[in-house]
Amino acid sequence: MFSDKKEKRIAAEPGSAQNRINEGTKLKGDVSSTGFFRIDGTVEGTVKTPSKVVLGKSGVIIGNLTCENADIEGRFEGNLQVSGTLSLRSTAVIEGDVTVGKLAVEPGATMNASCVMQDGLPKNTKTELNSSVDASKTPSYDRKSKVGNAVES
């Protein structure tokens, strides 16, 4: 009775599975999983996971990568979206567009990309928040008027 419930819960947990694409393996197409990836081969297409992706020294991704965290030692070309931390090791080569929450770069890494850092909010939400904050701002501090009032007193 209890073991049936436990098995169902374990199977439903995101990030519980590990996926590995070994060196010498080449995939073309879209790949998605709830578990994390270790890629030492080549993927041409889209890789999507709510977990972590590790791109080994011999690993190559040409296409799109969407994940929570990424640790890159190999080569990436395309659109990279990491909601958490992107770690670029010294052997990493990145080309394309990058959107990250946090960025860590070791000396020697190559990044020929446009990079946008955001706090996890979609761009539309950030724009709406900024415009509402701008509208509610009080006038800025005016030192001249404060100094003038102090001299008059």
TrEMBL record:
Residues 1-11 have a biased composition (Basic and acidic residues). Residues 127-139 have a biased composition (Polar residues). It comes from the Bacteria. Residues 1-25, 122-153 are annotated as: Disordered. InterPro entries: BacA/B. PANTHER family: HYPOTHETICAL CYTOSOLIC PROTEIN (PTHR35024), POLYMER-FORMING CYTOSKELETAL PROTEIN (PTHR35024:SF4). Belongs to the bactofilin family. This is Integral membrane protein CcmA involved in cell shape determination. The lineage of its organism: Bacteria, Pseudomonadati, Bacteroidota, Flavobacteriia, Flavobacteriales.
